[in-house]
Design brief:
Strand order of the largest sheet of chain B: 4-3-6-7
Distance between the termini of chain A: 24 Å
CATH architecture of the largest domain in chain A: Sandwich
Number of domains of chain B: 1
CATH superfamily of the largest domain in chain A: SoxY domain
Number of strands of chain B: 7
CATH class of chain B: Mainly Beta
Helix content of chain B: under 10%
Protein name (chain B): Sulfur compound chelating protein SoxZ
Pfam families (chain B): SoxZ
Largest sheet of chain A: 6 strands, mixed
Number of helices of chain B: 0
Structural class of chain A: alpha+beta
CATH architecture of chain B: Sandwich
Shape of chain B: elongated
Radius of gyration of chain A: 18 Å
Oligomer: heterodimer
Largest interface: A-B, 52 and 51 residues
Distance between the termini of chain B: 24 Å
Strand content of chain B: over 45%
Strand content of chain A: 35-45%
InterPro entries (chain A): SoxY, SoxY_sf, Sulphur_oxidation_SoxY, TAT_signal
Number of domains of chain A: 2
Number of strands of chain A: 9
Organism (chain A): Marinobacter pelagius
CATH class of the largest domain in chain A: Mainly Beta
Order of helices and strands of chain A: HHHHEEEEEEEEE
Protein name (chain A): Thiosulfate-binding protein SoxY
């Protein structure tokens, strides 16, 4: 994402925030009670605690992933700051139900994984932390099979130094 | 109280593009403070985006997601003026929720 677009986005966000406040100030307390917090009980504790890419994929999806050239990853080849590395994944594979992002050299490889219900496009953009120069692996579940793509990121300042 | 979530959702040709920014420390549990004490892990576990009561996107996050996480996703089946609900819960059980209107 270019800096220009990012500015625009942030400005837009400000506008949304203000409008949302003006509209919702009267009804917000009711909404908060009515809204249910997401259920974290399904959160895969074990998969997030597993080091190693292949082990994590096996733990998360119970299968091995095959390489695919139909997964497009958009991330910097050199990241100046390992604490904030933007990663986008898009794929042309059909019937995608899940996307996972793994950082090979982090203490625990799994960074995030996403459920993609029907009607949602197989695209996600997220920002990740990485400790050092590492491979980033995107895993896509398509038609019940796992596919992966890998790209290397050179990190000049690690994300774990605080 | 201002919401911790900022959302912008735009519909174009049947596809809604959503960008969300959440204010959260996302401590990994590996970082030490200046006194050498480990800062305990504190991160968002699950973030859901729902439209008409149906989840259109579920993000399961670990501590390797950056501070003040950003998320972008795209989905079909919503139109301008529809309301979306974005909610999250973290590993300490704290949660927040907000609604946004598709522009």
């Amino acid at each position: 994402m270019t800096d220009q677009r990012r500015r625009g986005f942030l400005k837009g966000m400000l506008g949304v925030g203000v409008a949302g406040f003006a509209l919702g100030s009267g009804i917000v307390p009711l909404r908060v009670e009515a809204a249910t917090a997401p259920d974290a009980s399904e959160w895969p504790e074990k998969a997030f605690k597993t080091p190693g890419v292949d082990e994590t994929i096996a733990e998360l999806y119970g299968m091995e992933a095959t390489e695919s050239d139909q997964i497009t990853m958009d991330l910097p080849t050199i990241a100046q700051n390992g604490a904030v590395v933007p990663v986008s994944v898009e794929t042309t594979l059909p019937n995608v139900t899940g996307i996972a992002l793994l950082v090979a050299k982090n203490p625990n490889a799994l960074a995030a994984y996403f459920d993609v219900p029907e009607g949602t496009l197989p695209f996600v953009s997220n920002r990740l932390k990485m400790a050092e120069t590492t491979d980033v692996v995107a895993v896509v579940i398509s038609d019940g099979k796992a596919y992966k793509a890998t790209q290397n990121v050179k990190v000049t300042v690690g994300g774990c130094g605080g | 109280m201002a919401s911790s979530i900022r959302v912008r959702a735009v519909e174009n040709n049947g596809v809604t593009s959503l960008k969300a920014l959440v204010r959260h420390p996302m401590d990994s549990g590996f970082v030490k403070d200046s006194a050498g004490n480990v800062i305990p892990a504190h991160f968002i576990k699950v973030l859901t985006i729902s439209h008409n009561g149906k989840n259109v996107f579920v993000a399961n996050w670990g501590p390797a997601v950056s501070k003040d996480p950003f998320l972008e996703c795209r989905f079909k089946g919503a139109k301008k003026g529809d309301e979306l609900t974005i909610s999250w819960i973290d590993n300490e059980g704290a949660s927040d929720s907000t609604t946004a209107t598709i522009a």
